Amino acid sequence: MENYVSIWPVVILALIHFFGTRLRFLAGVPRSIWLSGAGGVSVAYVFLHLFPELSEGQEHVEQLNVAETFLSHHVYLVALIGLAVFYGLERIVVEQRYQQKKKEHVEPRHEQGFFWLHIGSFAIYNALIGYILFQREEESLQNLLLFSVAMALHFIVNDFGLQEHHKNSYRRYGRWVLVAALIMGWGIGFVVELPEALVALVLAFVGGGVILNVLKEELPKERESRYWAFALGAGLYAILLLSL
């Protein structure tokens, strides 16, 4: 790989974590139309571009020995696992916040444990995305650009959600961990070449995570999300993807 084009999307995604705390105009209630629109773009990409790739990747997954009984028909099972994992983590964080609002005592070590569990899971998520960025460069520039735009907007949504949950802990430690994980995942691409079957499974897991992480930010009633902005973002990006 001569040009290392994928380093630029990695830099942009890292900068989102660095400077996301300064995008004050996106904060507040009702939810920013830009955040809702960004979520719509991310979901449109998963359904119209990433999931169709999984149907093609299923052929490679079926060549794995374990696939004969476990994944022989449904690579989407891994997408479901990704969604379920992030849903479970979100429930843990929401329960912690509920206990705090009830003014029940939460030991600092437990609070820090929840924080690192949450950030650790997103670090793995970022590392997988970093690896996919490297992989996308080997496929085509168009695939790299489409994935990068969707993930950049998705990272903005994630960044605001994590700030809301963890506040100073995220600004002081969490975002740096996520940046390091993203770069590490991209760097692993230089030394580890996964079989196409495993790349398909990584894409499936990330796809499930994207769907859950977007919808969990849009659905809570107290956010007063803008459905029309979400639908507009999804619709416009869908038109772009279908026209290519």
From TrEMBL:
Q: Which UniProt keywords apply?
A: Membrane, Transmembrane, Transmembrane helix
> Where do transmembrane segments lie in this chain?
6-25, 32-51, 71-93, 114-134, 140-161, 173-192, 198-215, 227-243
- Asked whether the keyword Cytoplasm is assigned, the reply is no
Query: What protein name applies here?
Result: Membrane protein
State the organism of origin: Pontibacter korlensis
